[in-house]
Amino acid sequence: MKNLFVILFCVCGTVLHAQIGIGTTSPTSTLDIRGSLALNYRSFTASTTAASTDNNLLFTGTSAATLTLPDATGCAGRTYTIKNVSTTSPLPVLTVSTTSSQTIDGGSSWLLNDTKEVLTVISDGSNWNVISSGVSKTRNNYVLVQSVSDFPAPVSGIITLAAGTTYEINGTIYLTSKINLNGCYLVGMDANNDKLIYTPGSGELFTGTKGGTVKTLTLAAITTGAKLFNLDMGATENLVFRDNVVASCKDVGLVKGGYIVFFSVVNYSGNINGITYQDVSNLLLDNTAWFATNSNTYEKLVGSFTMIEKLGGFSNAVSTNSAVGLDVSGVTTISDAATFKNTAMMGTGTRVNGSFSGKWEVECPGITTEKDDVATGNLYLTSTASTTFSGTNVPTKVLGTTTSAGLFRVSTSGNNRLIYDGIKTRRFSVVASVSVTSTSANKYFSFYIYKNGVKLPESEQAMRLSTGVDKGSLTITCTVQLTTNDYIEVWAANTSDNSSMTVETMNIAIK
Fold this sequence. Notes:
The chain has one helix and 46 strands. By secondary structure, the protein is an all-beta fold. Residues 1-18 form the signal peptide. Keywords: Signal.
C-alpha cells in the first residue's frame, strides 16, 4: 500500500509540471491552444464590479459610471479588458476604480473619456498594472477597394458611390460598369500601382451629373468606343482631378458644366483623343503634362466660361500624330478673364488652334505673347486733305485719310484715331510725327495729342512756316493712361490766324 502511494504521488507530480496542449499532441508551451479562444464578454450600462467570470467588459451606458476592480491580492495574473463604447453625446465618462486602497499603475483610478477608448489591466497580486491603453478608432465613411466587389453594387450598369464616402483604391481594378462619383473622394496611395481600368467598348468610366475628387490614380479607358469622362454636371458641382496618370485612353472624353473644374499635376500619355471642357464656370488647369505619345487634339475648350486659368506644365504636339496642343476655336464667351501662362508649347504639330480674344492673357514659351501689356497700334496718312480752322488758336482734328498697321488690342474708327480695346487700364507711350505745308507765310501752328476729344497739354509742339512753300516737320511724344475704348487723335491749331494747312505726312504709334 505504501509503494502504491509513492507511485501515485510521483505520477501526479509529473502531470502537474507537464505542458498542456489543446488541439495538439505536441504542446510547446505550458498551455498550447491550436484553435480559437473564447473569453467571457459582458456589456453594462451602469456602475458595476468586475467579477471573476469576466474578461472583456464593454460600457454602453448613457451617463457616467464606475467599474470597480476586485481585490488584486486574490487574483494575481488575472486580466481585464475594458472599453467605453457608448454612443451618447457628449460621451459619458467611465471610471475604473480599485478596492482596498489599491492602485492602477500607481493611481487610484483610470478614466475612459474618449470614444472607443480601451484599457487592459493585470493583477500582480498586490495592485493592478496597465498592459495597454488607448483609443481604438477606425475611419468613418471609408472603404478600402481591393476588388470590384468592394464598390457599391451597380444599378443599370452604374456604380453610384455613397455620398460623403472616401474610396481608397488598392491595386489594379478592372471595371465593366460606369462610376457616378456622387461628390465622393476616390483616391489611391501610389499612382503607379493603384489603377482603375475601364474595359467595355462603349460608354465611359465617369458618368452622370455629379462631381467629386479623383486623386493619385492611373486611369484608362482602353477599348475603342470608350471614354474616361462623360460628365454633364450641375452649376454648383465641383470636380477635382489631381496627381493622376491618364494613359492609353481611346478618348479622354468630355467634362461639361460645373462650378469649379480643377485638373492639377496630371500626366497624359498614349491617349488617342484628348479632353474637351465645355461650359465650365471656373476652369483651372495647372501643371498638366501632355507627352508626344498623345494624338489628335489634347485639350479643347468649347462654349461659355466665367474664368479660365491654364498654368505651367507642357504640351508636346507632334505633327505625325495630327496633334493639336490647345484648341480655343470653340470658345464663345468668357465673362471675366482667362490666363494662359508658363506652359511650354512644343513640338512640330499645331500648338494652338483658334485665336485668343481680348479676355486672355497669354505668355508661354513657344507661342506669341498676347496680353494687354503688349497692346500696340500704328496708323499713317495715305491721302492728304486741307485742315481748316474756325478761328485763331482754335484746335481742330487733323484731316486726311489714314491706314492702320500692327494693331494688337488696338483698333481704329474712321481716320486719325487709335482706340484701346484691352481690359486692363495701362499707360502708353505715344509718338506722332507730322510734316506740314501752308499757303501763307509766317504762320505758327501748334500740334497736340487729344484723348477722348480732350487736349493733353503736355503733348503740345509748335512750328513756324516762314514762306508759303515751306514744309515743316515735328515729333509729338507723351505718355497717356488709357482704359477700354479710350482713343487718341492728333489735333492742331493755327496760332496766327484762321488760315488752313495741309498735313503731308503723319504717323502715330502707341505702345
